[in-house]
Design a protein that fits this description.
five-stranded parallel β-sheet, 5 helices, Rossmann fold, single chain, 150 residues
């Protein structure tokens, strides 16, 4: 069976990526796995102020992660219903990781996926501009085909 890995950060592009993965699954009679990478962000705490700031940061990260998972969960659910009605398998996976591109590529390779579906949109921080976006890194590192959804 053709295996499709969908990897998104939970942004507005989630809808487009899920839709494209659904189309591919229906065409190929494939199974779809929806992968979300969340960052644990471990670091050494040296003072009470750092501890308090870490608590604030963790609360913010938790809210953002919950919102991203909620957004994608709704969209994934719609795809799961459509694909399930056609007899196709779906699965949701949430993994911790600090390097999304590597984590996605490793997961795809370890689980023998035939296609990775990702968005070209994402956070455009200065770091992304200097070091390259997650999508660019996946395209370079993946040992399987990658479909980039605009």
């Amino acid at each position: 069976m053709f295996k499709i890995l969908v990897a998104v950060k939970g942004s507005e592009s989630c809808s487009d990526v899920a839709q494209k993965a659904q189309e591919m699954a229906l065409l190929c009679k494939g199974a779809v796995t929806f992968l979300t990478i969340v960052s644990p962000e471990h670091r050494l705490i040296r003072s009470k102020e750092e501890f308090e700031q870490l608590n604030l940061d963790l609360e913010k990260t938790k809210r953002e992660t919950e919102e991203a998972l909620k957004t994608c969960s709704t969209l994934y659910g719609q795809c799961e219903v459509t694909l399930g009605e056609k007899g196709l398998e779906t699965e949701r996976v949430v993994k911790e990781g600090n390097h999304p591109a590597e984590d996605i590529c490793d997961y795809a390779e370890e689980n023998d996926f035939d296609l990775i579906v990702i968005a070209d949109k994402g956070d455009k921080t200065l770091k992304d501009k200097l070091l390259g976006s997650t999508a660019e890194k996946i395209i370079k590192q993946a040992k399987t085909s990658v479909l980039v959804v605009k």
